[in-house]
């Protein structure tokens, strides 16, 4: 469910007409809906309300401070994967005791920052990382609460590039070594063993592989407890996949919660969830304007003012984001277009052979489900400024990130003296 709907022929975000936003802020433009963000958070937290549960929103999905502050106001925690994300989460008002830190490559300075903040949990992904963390915590006279991310050898995920739970992937510690590594961790002076962590992939719309992985993890928790290793938390990783097209029906938060309850049985643990896409994905759309319609060799290209630098998912994962005209055309006459951007790469294409009502130069189009892994993955390739982001709440709207000027883009670069002298 989201709050991007037509009123008459015009697409709205909550009570604001999209053409008005395009007029005010320009295009390309990301538009986020507060009501949708809050609704997604609320539905998930209600589904888990009978369970001790921390919802640690996965900041990587959409890390805009206004999005984080909105979720912080709902009580959300955060799953961060870098010093930068930790900085953002704290700055947006997410308390350190609700923050978990994931990722395979945490640097010394990142670990120190998280230790100084006093975060809830480090999701440790290797033995060398355990040693490094123990050393740094000991030097501070503290014990770092950890979960080991285990790799359950269950492959799942919307696309091969976003699947993480198989043996070939870099993530987590080997399943067969887990118990030995936990025993080792128990003896480390700077480590407090607190939990087990698992994450098998993203955009998983079927809960069966999740169940398989969680059942394995629950079995491991019971074995660890039998070894007197005090596991009090299970981190189940990222959330469910989302519908990207009308008609897609992924598992619901209540199906997911029921499955988790069933798998946990009588196991008394705090559940940690790290949902990103299911919170932010359908809470954002991406607006672009048609620059040209070009017909060549029997193909019809709609050349947009947005490129793969603004929304990378189609180029990177062959993802198709449903495109809707911002103002519905008066006629039902449809045409087939390749929806492309201005960048000098053939992968700069949002969709091939996309059937839609007739498009004209100057028309606004909306790519749906762009709130997660959209703006965060944008870049300035072709020196195209990272585009602006707007947050809507009812009738209110405000810029939550403005596009940099060309001067700002080059301001951190310098020409060495030997070139100019
Ligand atoms: N926790 C961990 C350890 C993760 O690696 C991820 C996502 C999440 C949580 C959040 O997963 P979610 O709830 O959003 O499914 N750029 C790709 C997605 C990469 C996901 C990376 N990890 C895309 O655009 O589809």
Mean pLDDT: 96
Portion of residues in beta strands equals: 25-35%
Q: What is the CATH superfamily classification of the largest domain?
A: Alanine racemase
What's the CATH topology name of the largest domain?
TIM Barrel
Q: Uncertain segments of ≥5 residues (pLDDT<50)?
A: none
**Number of spatially distinct domains:** 2
Query: What is the helix tally?
Result: 13
Number of strands: 21
The CATH C-level name of the largest domain is Alpha Beta
EC number: 4.1.1.20
Function: Specifically catalyzes the decarboxylation of meso-diaminopimelate (meso-DAP) to L-lysine.
Keywords: Amino-acid biosynthesis, Decarboxylase, Lyase, Lysine biosynthesis, Pyridoxal phosphate
GO molecular function: diaminopimelate decarboxylase activity
Name the descriptors.
binds ligand LLP, De-COase2_N, PLP-binding_barrel, alpha/beta, globular, 29% helix, amino-acid biosynthesis, TIM Barrel, 8-stranded parallel β-barrel, 421 residues, 9-stranded mixed β-sheet, Lyase, Ornithine Decarboxylase, Chain A, domain 1, 13 helices
What does this structure look like?
There is one protein chain. By secondary structure, the chain is an alpha/beta fold. The strands form three sheets. Strands 4, 14, 15, 16, 17, 18, 19, 20 and 21 form a nine-stranded mixed β-sheet that branches. The protein folds into two domains: 4-31 and 282-410, Lyase, Ornithine Decarboxylase, Chain A, domain 1 (Beta Barrel), CATH 2.40.37.10; 103-273, TIM Barrel, CATH 3.20.20.10. The protein has helices at residues 18-25, 34-47, 65-73, 83-91, 108-117, 127-139, 178-186, 208-226, 253-264, 277-280, 313-317, 406-410, 417-420; strands at residues 4-7, 10-13, 16-17, 29-33, 53-58, 77-80, 99-101, 121-124, 144-151, 173-174, 191-197, 233-235, 270-273, 284-296, 299-304, 323-325, 334-340, 349-357, 364-367, 388-393, 396-401. It is globular. Ligand LLP binds at residues 58, 61, 79, 102, 162, 199, 202-203, 237-239, 274-278, 313, 317, 372-373.
